[in-house]
Design brief:
With 519 residues, the chain is of the alpha/beta class. The chain is built from 16 helices and 20 strands. Helix 11 (330-339) crosses helix 12, helix 11 runs antiparallel to helix 14 and helix 12 packs antiparallel against helix 13.
Length: 519
């Protein structure tokens, strides 16, 4: 075999690598989760033309140029191989942005005792710092699920090597806390989701710093999935749908569907007309709590018994069939904003924020001027949490939450985000907990990529009459909000229109009158 033939053979072999990798890259790109289908033939044509051109040159190239052609083929092969490897990695990053909730929920019940500092500071209550908790009084409250409480007590008894524990049940969480602080009971058994609620109660703001966890019991319960309706089998991109967006009142690192939701928004979406209606609901709305005997409770507290319980309360209120949900918490919210490089909002009025950004994030004071402003993650978190310095309190906070959410959606759907898609995806891993699969969500995004066009937003901020009433979760009076009847009826009608496929427009919601609504 001559030197020339050897050179020619190497060029042809390197071209075969280009041909094979072109085919591999095409099918990998074609199956990419957000590949624009209208570009299928464009990609096929480009790769085919490239393979044909390099093939002709590889076969017909003159002796002196064959080495150059081989180098070109090798470079092209490496680029195609890199693309074939990178696209599946990128797809996994995109899929992992959303964490799908399985059909189980974790319930954590903690046994709280007063810590050493508190005991030392109150010698009138404690004759010794040595307390035999196993032989002490375990306090429970009637609001806890009886089966969950009994299971926790049994597990604690086994751990403490006792046949049973001395248990006293209090009627309300207020009574149970008072007994713990008065040393009438030494151990308080409560669901960990109640801690934020406790620290909003007068006199117990320092509960976490005055107590410690003696032990914890984790229970895993099965959640009965909702039956799938025939119309729900269609992709989200082909039908109107609703999804509940909840901001969990927790600074924990792990997202959970259980617990209070202090941001409560229903998104009614029609991909066919490219409309999104965002309805913000005050967290203190007085609604029925199915898990607590269908008695009235704050909307946010219905989440302590699982997402299904909270959706049930919303469905009763709006007479809809809300099934899908997505949850972020304060930690993930900050990460999302920072990953996007911050967001721009049009602030309707100036205010000063002293809201605690929670957890490991320091409390910070911010002054927000009226007009267009840019918010970092910390600033956005303070912006949506502040309510005490607003003249309309929690209703104003709901308005700010809506403003930031619209800004996030606009940023996510803008072309500017493409330049830093990789870093954004890295920062957003497991930042959303939802009942939807990643495929469901990305199919909707893929449909947007294929069809293009902008979305229109319709926003309604529900309000009501603030008052005080007995809540099922506390068995005691708490501040609540009675929904205005006319506003509920109006929003119901607008939701139903969108779900029926109608094109709706922004309207003026009925004014805040003296009528209120109890479902």
């Amino acid at each position: 075999m001559t030197h020339k033939k050897r050179k020619m053979k190497i060029a042809v072999i390197s071209w075969l690598a280009v041909l094979i990798l072109s085919i591999v890259l095409f099918f990998i790109a074609r199956g990419f989760i957000v590949f624009p289908k209208q570009y299928t033939w464009h990609l096929a044509g480009a790769l085919a033309a490239l393979a044909l051109l390099t093939g002709v040159l590889s076969f017909l190239i003159k002796k002196g140029k064959s080495a150059v052609m081989t180098v070109i083929n090798v470079i092209l092969s490496l680029c195609m191989a890199a693309g074939s490897i990178y696209l599946p990695i990128l797809q996994k990053q995109m899929v992992d942005v959303f964490e799908k909730q399985d059909n189980t929920e974790e319930i954590v019940i903690n046994a709280y005792v007063m810590n050493e500092e508190y005991i030392t500071a109150h010698p009138e209550l404690y004759t010794t710092s040595e307390i035999s908790y196993a032989d002490g009084i375990f306090l429970t409250e009637a609001g806890l699920d009886p089966e969950e409480t009994q299971e926790a007590l049994q597990q604690l008894a086994v751990k403490m090597e006792r046949p049973s524990l001395n248990v006293v049940e209090k009627e309300t969480i207020d009574d149970a806390l008072a007994a713990l602080y008065a040393n009438e009971g030494q151990v308080l058994l409560i669901d960990e989701t109640q801690i934020d609620m406790i620290e909003e109660m007068e006199g117990y703001e320092a509960f976490s710093s005055q107590t410690k966890i003696l032990d914890s019991v984790t229970q895993v319960i099965e959640v009965e999935p909702e039956p799938v309706k025939e119309e729900d089998t269609r992709p989200l991109s082909e039908r109107p749908f609703q999804i509940f967006l909840g901001g969990a009142d927790t600074r924990a690192n792990k997202l959970s569907s259980r617990g209070r939701k202090d941001v409560d928004i229903i998104l009614t979406v029609n991909p066919l007309t490219k409309q999104i209606m965002l309805t913000t609901i005050p967290r203190d709305f007085y609604v029925r709590d199915k898990a607590l005997g269908n008695r009235f409770d704050k909307l946010t507290h219905t989440g302590n018994h699982g997402m299904g319980n909270m959706l049930n309360a919303l469905n009763n209120l709006f007479e809809t069939d809300l099934r899908h949900w997505m949850v972020v918490n304060f930690r993930t919210f900050k990460n999302i904003i920072d990953a996007l490089g911050g967001v721009d909002v049009d602030n309707p009025y100036a205010f000063h924020s002293t809201a605690d950004t929670g957890g490991n994030m320091n409390s910070q004071n911010y002054s927000f001027k009226k007009g267009k402003i840019h918010l970092s993650g910390d600033q956005a978190l303070a912006y949506v949490r502040e309510r005490h310095n607003l003249k309309n309190g929690d209703f104003g906070r709901n308005e700010h939450q809506m403003i930031v959410i619209k800004a996030v959606i606009n940023k996510l759907t803008s072309s500017a985000i493409l330049s830093k898609a990789g870093s954004v995806l890295n920062s957003l891993q497991k930042q959303f907990l939802t009942d939807l699969s990643s495929e469901d969500i990305w199919s909707l995004i893929n449909a947007q990529i294929n069809t293009g066009g902008s979305w229109s937003f319709i926003t309604y901020h529900l309000s009501g009459r603030p008052t005080s009433a007995v809540t099922a979760s506390a068995n005691a009076p708490r501040s609540v909000v009675y929904p205005y009847k006319q506003q509920i009826f109006f929003v119901r009608e607008q939701m139903q229109k969108m779900l029926n496929g109608e094109n709706v427009t922004q309207e003026t919601m009925p004014s805040d009158n003296k009528e209120y609504y109890l479902p």
